[in-house]
Design brief:
It is a single chain. The protein is built from 15 helices and 41 strands. The chain is α+β, with helices and mostly antiparallel strands. The chain has three domains: 288 residues, Metallo-dependent phosphatases (Purple Acid Phosphatase, chain A, domain 2); 155 residues, Alpha-Beta Complex (5'-nucleotidase,  domain 2); 236 residues, Beta Barrel (Outer membrane phospholipase (ompla), Chain C), CATH 2.40.230. The strands form nine sheets. The chain has a twelve-stranded antiparallel beta barrel with strand order 30-31-32-33-34-35-36-37-38-39-40-41. It has a six-stranded mixed β-sheet with strand order 4-3-2-1-16-17, with no helix packed on it. It starts with 17 loop residues before the first helix and ends with a strand.
Length: 722
Amino acid sequence: MRTAEFSCAMPRFRFPSVRAWVILLAAVLIPGSVSAEGDAGDVVLMLTANLGGRFTTAIQEQESADPMLILAQSIRHRQQEHPADLLIDLGNAFYPGPLSRYSHGSVMMDFLDYFNYSATLVSSQDLNIGINNLSFLGKGKNANLLSANIRQNGLPVFAPYFISEINGRRFAFIGITSGKGFFDIAEKAVLDVSLADVDEVITDALSALEQEHIDFVIALSGLSQPDNLDLMQQFPRISLCITGGDTTGDLYSVKANRVDLDSGQTIVSLTRSDGFYTLTLNAREKLAVGSLLFDTPVECALEDPAYAAFVGRLSLWKLRFAREGLETVAADLPEPIDVDSRKVADMLRDRFRAEVAIIESHAVIPQTLSETISYTDILRMVANDFPLFTYRLTGGELKKILRDTEGLIISGADDAMIQGYPLADQRSYKICSPQSVYELLAKKLGRDDIDYTNTWRTLSDEIRIDLIDERIMARHDFDYLERRYRFLADLSFSNFFDQSEVNRGDAMDKPPGKPAASYRKWGLENKAVLTFYNRDHMFELTPYIFFVRQDDDYLRNLLRGTLLYTYNLNPVARPYCKSQVDTVVRPVDDLRPVLIRQTLGAQVETDHITGKMGFGFEKQVRDPEEDLFSGIETIIGIKYDFRQYLTYTFGLDTFFAIPQDHFNRHQIRSDISNALSFKLNSYLAFTIKHTWFYLYSGEFKEQYSDSRTLLSLDLATDFKIH
């Protein structure tokens, strides 16, 4: 088993072997609970997991209403009646309870310290408090914060293990943090915090323990059960693995509290968080599990100085929280506001003008806000306080994410569509999400180089600002986000080698902007596509220049402007209206011919093919002015990515035109292009392109054609204004 920074190592699935089925049957059939009172020489551990700092914020009747105080009463009562040797927490103790978050974990650290916990495993949810805060909280406390694999500058941030002597036997407990958590981005950048390889840190810890005369090694693990099995097989020195916090106890779709291996090792899983476990171990030649018993906390009268002192300290935190947290955010709401993760995601799209907002489905606990809202109310319903990031992902990357949205709320993208248009694989889109989602998506995409902007604000901050100001979440319809206009610019600049072969009849005039003879020349071809669009309407303005000058001759001298309007009737078929003007960059013989085309038609679009067919007219309006021709326009575009760096494009633009009263004077004007582009990086591409222009005159029964081959180095970029 291997783990890397910010990754959760997942072994390849293999169908369970006969040995695995035996393990499962043992896990299901072997009784997991007998009396917690062991024989003389037995070791008794009291265990908790996933406490989540779930204190209430009210002082009134807290000793009968606060679940953490009821848990404390039960633990202290059990300790008085049948003392355990050690009290250990398996992780996720500090988050997401509002009082624990408000105190930056301090109130939960007091809980662990006052009630004589020996250690707690630093787990994924705990990291929301921040590495610096957790490290500070652990100073001078009896309760150890354990993690062998969280490192800063290559050194452990927390204690990798702790040692305890019980009944004359020496036990070492090693803490292993799972890869599910996310370090604060500032801590990662400034403090160089990372998650080290599990195999390496266990090897280092066992090596250090060789000098301590340890009898038994116990792993406190947040890894998945398959990873824990690999861990036990790789390190037979570990007698027992206790899992909780980030581990559900699932093994091959079966929830197992206990798995006995034929090596004599055992894995014990804490699958419940609403109470505490008592684990009895037989510590003789080998360490064996005697029993595992779960207790549900119940309220009980307790005379205990430590408990009384903690209640007093907890009350001070609650008073302070009430004093600062009861600040009125919104008063006299005209109507109740239903808030959930979906509405908050929609609100983020609005506030950051993002095309897509992604948050965890559990990030916001559904609430109905009414009348007067305090900051405390906001803290109670928000379960993610990582900073919000904005960043860009390509359409291809978003498609991968949309295939697996379990546990996520995605606003703005659905069924590979954004704002009514299909996702373009190479186009980038603006995303807003908490850091935790950013890290999750980076793992899914296998990228660690996604540039981001840290807003330094959290979901709680944004909800508070929204309730004070715009109250976007009060809306029942967020359709206006789809009607919001965005501006997109695609710029392309090419240097090329141009070889042209021209054939034309004697009576044929040279069309505007076309060469009169064959030539070979280097030149420039520049194009910009400026798009202004929302869900319903799209306007594209495309200026295009193709200009080559040799001495005093203009070998290429085309200036074209196109305005295309498309109504987004549905994703496949859309009506359009197009205006196009062709002229020259520099006058030739004091003449500046101008050819206009106006068409109205329908556009059909699939993943790789776009087709347009329309009716309209074409007319040369000056130098010289000619008759108006009515006709049919056919445009076909094909784009196919053979590889991420290799793209083929095909273009056909044909206009069949006839004057109003003379069919025999019809014209056919056609542009055909084929191109193969090799992408060198995100800006540069090498392109081989062939174009063919054809003009047929029914009046003269003659034709003009222009064939050219281009070898070009293209500079292409785009930007979007949201």
